[in-house]
Specification:
By secondary structure, the chain is α/β, with parallel strands linked by helices. It contains nine helices and four strands. The protein has a four-stranded parallel beta sheet with strand order 2-1-3-4. Strand 3, helix 4 and strand 4 form a beta-alpha-beta unit. The longest helix has 31 residues.
Length: 224
């Protein structure tokens, strides 16, 4: 049960989202649900429409900076609806923790500073991996004669082949893990659950779905 004083921080990522209110109602609902029934005071709220990124993350979030200052002054806990509403950048989260303001995410209230730091580091790492995979795929496509930005059937086949090669390479990296799960007799649903439990990113990032597990198995089982 929540108790004490709280200051809420809501954020959307684009001007369009800010004008439409997209996502803000859901964030407020999550905060209200988390605090419902507790001995608490919501003494303020700050709303941010983020318009850019940079090395000095707080400078790009003046409302968050104000919320942190208010939280320090009032001895309040900063409350957010979802952890990813704060950041996916480990340096930003480090700076936030150094501010000495207590904060809680409604979707992960049990998380402590260490787990949040680890999650942010993993999110940043995965973002870099996705970026690198995209660059690798483009490089492979160009090496196969694909003219980037050009449409048409003559340009389609090399691009498809490039994506298949990247997908095959991704599956091959997971071969030892899948071999081990098969040896333990895990079902495909069990494999999906285990991959999510140990934090292995899915092919496109995020959580694994059964269909993705099945595709990886088919790739690993198909003759090279």
């Amino acid at each position: 049960m929540a108790n004490g004083k709280f200051i809420a921080y809501f954020r959307v990522s684009t001007q369009k989202q800010g004008m439409s209110g997209l996502g803000l109602e859901a964030q407020r609902a999550a905060v209200d649900l988390f605090l419902n029934g507790g001995d608490w005071q919501l003494i303020g709220e700050y709303q941010e429409v983020e318009t850019g990124k940079g090395s000095d993350a707080l400078a790009k979030r003046p409302q968050l900076k104000a919320a942190l200052a208010s939280s320090r002054k009032e001895g309040a806990t900063l409350i957010i609806a979802k952890l990813d509403r704060l950041a996916r950048n480990v340096h930003f989260v480090s700076g936030l923790m150094e501010s000495k303001v207590k904060f809680v995410a409604c979707d992960m209230p049990e998380a402590n500073e260490l787990t949040i730091h680890i999650m942010a580091a993993f999110a940043e790492h995965e973002a870099k991996r996705i970026s690198q995979r995209t660059k690798d795929a483009l490089a492979i496509a160009k090496s196969r004669g694909v003219v980037l930005g050009k449409a048409g059937p003559d340009n389609l086949r090399p691009n498809v082949e490039a994506r298949q090669k990247v997908a095959d390479a991704f599956a091959d990296k997971l071969r030892p893990l899948f071999d081990g799960m098969k040896a333990r007799g895990l079902s495909q649903r069990g494999m999906c659950a285990e991959l999510n439990a140990i934090g292995v990113p899915a092919p496109k990032g995020g959580a694994w779905r059964l269909s993705q597990v099945q595709r990886i198995i088919r790739r690993l089982d198909s003759p090279q």
